[in-house]
Each structure stands twice: as structure tokens, then as C-alpha cells.
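Whiteboard transcription, Tuesday session. T.W. wrote the C-alpha cells on the left side:
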């Protein structure tokens, strides 16, 4: 064998190793099983074409399970994940613990200044971005225009809770399998408590007073939970205590819900004719109020963040930049249409006429996001920030425990008074244990 022949063989072998990914670096990404994230996974050939030296391993989980897994991993520096999908709640708390890699040197053209200020504010600590928003959301009313018309009613752009109840009653037709309203009932601080906390804000309720004393023994919380149970028991679907975002999305797409008050991000799915049987009949309105100056809408973003324990920061950052960039938005538009791009993150999207023309929900989404005020979420003053959550580390556990009580009330296992009493006692106990109150 000549030296030239041997050199050519070695070169071919090296090329083969690269081609088969033998030298590629694998990053593990933990994400939630929501539609936009599933769509992202289907488009990652674009990323790997640009980064042939990076392979991706997905861990896709239900929302409550995802939160448990990533929280446990990052708190113990477990190193299971190189990119995590986390929410607005976690970012400032984890950044303060030095658990996240700061996103200070994103690739040229990323344009972090284009991120909507309402969304960026929750992801920034001391002027530094610690997570990149994949999509941002508030919550709003999605409703069947045909059923409203058949009932001889018209949905206001800014309805009250009394108007929502009247519409739910008018649209309910149990014999036809149509329920006037679908709301979250599944226990979890980010499931039923996201909805109920936002609803309670509009009723004048608070999680805590200025001295961190729990407030579930207040008249405002009793009114909130009473009206919620009234809506669900009289006009909601059976088995609602097991329904979260995905379950209600399926019900609405199947035409079984007259109204659904939930995340604005759902709008592209309920108006997609390939997925929704009522796509051409969906209208939108702001989340309801009680005339007290606060609406029952939240503010949230699902974000991609890099845990400080990863040894693959550069590869992880390359993926985060790709998935949250303007180019990714254009990629989704090219493959799925402008109506299906991830919403609620960039100012430029809401200045794009192609998007505004394709997405009838765009303006309502933007108005809902801008209406939320995480710094002043309640009617009366509170010592915390966060609209549908309380931005303290203990909230995950407390919020889920309270959510279990309220879900049990929805299932008929306990009544309103018992659920609120249990919530008051368990929250008080934890706040004492954590040193907030004596």
C-alpha cells in the first residue's frame, strides 16, 4: 500500500466517522408536551443541518412531571439536561441561585432587544437575560361564535364574570354533548392554580397580606372558589378535575366547549382547520373581570434555559439561539403557516402584516399580555410579584398542595369551606416552617 493510498483511506474513514455522527456532541433537552414544542422537535433537521456536530436527545414530559424533573435535577446539580424548558416563575429564582448560564453572548443577529418588554422583564435579573422565551402568553376567552349567535347573545370584547356565567348557561346542551365552559381542574400550581390565582386577582383576593399571612379565609377567596365550582358543576364537562391545558384543548377542538378560558397560545390550535372541528367559529375576548380594576388573565412564557451544571454550554446555547430566533419563526411560517408561529415573544412579530393577516387572535393576545401586571397583580397591595403564581421558592409545593384541595372540591370530595380551610392551614404551616411568619 502506497503512502498516498493509505492517506486517502484514512481521510475516507474520518469522513465516514463524521457522517455517522461518531464525533457529534449530544445535548439532552427537557421540554413540555405542548403543541409548539412538539412542532419544534419536528423541525430540528434544520438545526442539525446547520450544526452537524451536535446531536439532540429529547425528554418530553407532561407539564407537572417536567417541573418536578427539572427542579430536582438543577437543585442537585444532577447534570441530566443541557437545555431545560422552564417558566417565568423559575427564571428569577434560579438565576438568583446561580443555577442558570447567563445568555450574555448570543450569536450575531439574535436581537434580544426585540423581545417584548413584558416578557423579557420576567427573564432578566440585574440587566442580564437568563432564559430565552420560546413562546409567551397571557390568558383570554376563546368561544364558539355560532353557539353565541344561536343563544341570541354577543360576547363583549371585555366581559365580566357575570356575562361569562350567562353565556355558559345559554350555550350548555348536555344532550348534544356541549358544555358551556371548560376550565382547568387538574391539580398543580401551574395547572388549576394558574387559572384560579388569576381569577382570584380579579375578585380582589390575595395569596398573602403584607405580613405574609395566608388569605384563604377571606370572603374574596370564598367568592372565587364558589363561582368557579358553580360554573364547572353546572356548565362544565364531566371529570373536569382531571382536565388540564391539553385535555381542554382536545375538548374544545372537538366542539364540546362553548367557551374556554386559558392560554392565548392555544389560539393557533383551535383555529387550525386540520386540528379543530370548529376552527372557523372561534372568537376571542379578554379574560373576565369583576369591576375591581383587575382582569383574570395571567402572564407566562415557556423558555429555554441552560443549567449551570452542563459541560456543553456552547452547543446548548447554539440550540437555544436557533429555537428562539427570528429565523425559527420564519421556518415555522414556511412549513406551517404564519398563524402557527410561536406567539408572544417578539415585538417584530406584531409588526409583521403577514402574521397579523393570518392570525385573527394576534391583537387580543398582545393586548392580554400587555394588560398583565406582575409587579402589581392584585387589587390590594401584596409583598410578592407574579400574576398566577407567587415568586417565592416555596410556592411550587404550596401551590400544588392548595391545587389538590381545590381539585378535590371540584370532584365533590369536599365542600368549599373545607377546601379553603385546608388551604389556609397547610399554607400557614409551610410559611411558618419557612420563616415568613411566626
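and on the right, the sequence the group agreed on:
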Amino acid at each position: 500500500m502506497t503512502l498516498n493510498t493509505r492517506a486517502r483511506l484514512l481521510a475516507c474513514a474520518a469522513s465516514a466517522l463524521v457522517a455517522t455522527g461518531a464525533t457529534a456532541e449530544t445535548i439532552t433537552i427537557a421540554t413540555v408536551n405542548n403543541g409548539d414544542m412538539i412542532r419544534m422537535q419536528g423541525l430540528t433537521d434544520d438545526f442539525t443541518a446547520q450544526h452537524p456536530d451536535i446531536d439532540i436527545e429529547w425528554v418530553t414530559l407532561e407539564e407537572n412531571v417536567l417541573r418536578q424533573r427539572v427542579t430536582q435535577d438543577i437543585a442537585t446539580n444532577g447534570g441530566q439536561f443541557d437545555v431545560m424548558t422552564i417558566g417565568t416563575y423559575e427564571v428569577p429564582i434560579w438565576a438568583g441561585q446561580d443555577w442558570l448560564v447567563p445568555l450574555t453572548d448570543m450569536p450575531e443577529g439574535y436581537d434580544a432587544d426585540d423581545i417584548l418588554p413584558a416578557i423579557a422583564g420576567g427573564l432578566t435579573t440585574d440587566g442580564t437575560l437568563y432564559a430565552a422565551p420560546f413562546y409567551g402568553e397571557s390568558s383570554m376567552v376563546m368561544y364558539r361564535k355560532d353557539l353565541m349567535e344561536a343563544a341570541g347573545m354577543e360576547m363583549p370584547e371585555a366581559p365580566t364574570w357575570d356575562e361569562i356565567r350567562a353565556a355558559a348557561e345559554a350555550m350548555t346542551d348536555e344532550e348534544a354533548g356541549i358544555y358551556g365552559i371548560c376550565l382547568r381542574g387538574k391539580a398543580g400550581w401551574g395547572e388549576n392554580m394558574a387559572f384560579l390565582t388569576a381569577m382570584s386577582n380579579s375578585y380582589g383576593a390575595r395569596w398573602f397580606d403584607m405580613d405574609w399571612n395566608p388569605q384563604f379565609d377571606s370572603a374574596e377567596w370564598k367568592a372565587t372558589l364558589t363561582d368557579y365550582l358553580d360554573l364547572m358543576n353546572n356548565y362544565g364537562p364531566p371529570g373536569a378535575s382531571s382536565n388540564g391545558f391539553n385535555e381542554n384543548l382536545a375538548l374544545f377542538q372537538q366542539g364540546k366547549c362553548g367557551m374556554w378560558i386559558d392560554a392565548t397560545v392555544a389560539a393557533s390550535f383551535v383555529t387550525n382547520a386540520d386540528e379543530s372541528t370548529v376552527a372557523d367559529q372561534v372568537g376571542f375576548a379578554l379574560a373576565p373581570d369583576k369591576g375591581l380594576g383587575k382582569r383574570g388573565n395571567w402572564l407566562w412564557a415557556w423558555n429555554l434555559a441552560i443549567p449551570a451544571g452542563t459541560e456543553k454550554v456552547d452547543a446548548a446555547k447554539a440550540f437555544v439561539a436557533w429555537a428562539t430566533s427570528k429565523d425559527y419563526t420564519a421556518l415555522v411560517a414556511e412549513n406551517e403557516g404564519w398563524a402557527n408561529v410561536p406567539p408572544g415573544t417578539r415585538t417584530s412579530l406584531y409588526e409583521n402584516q403577514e402574521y397579523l393577516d393570518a392570525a385573527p387572535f394576534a391583537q387580543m393576545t398582545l393586548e392580554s399580555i400587555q394588560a398583565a401586571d406582575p409587579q402589581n397583580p392584585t387589587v390590594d397591595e401584596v409583598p410578592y410579584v407574579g400574576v398566577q403564581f407567587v415568586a417565592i421558592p416555596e410556592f411550587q409545593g404550596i401551590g400544588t398542595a392548595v391545587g389538590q384541595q381545590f381539585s378535590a372540591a371540584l370532584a365533590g370530595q369536599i365542600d368549599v369551606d373545607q377546601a379553603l380551610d385546608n388551604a389556609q392551614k397547610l399554607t400557614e404551616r409551610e410559611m411558618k416552617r419557612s420563616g415568613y411568619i411566626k
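Someone added at the bottom: The chain has a mean pLDDT of 93.
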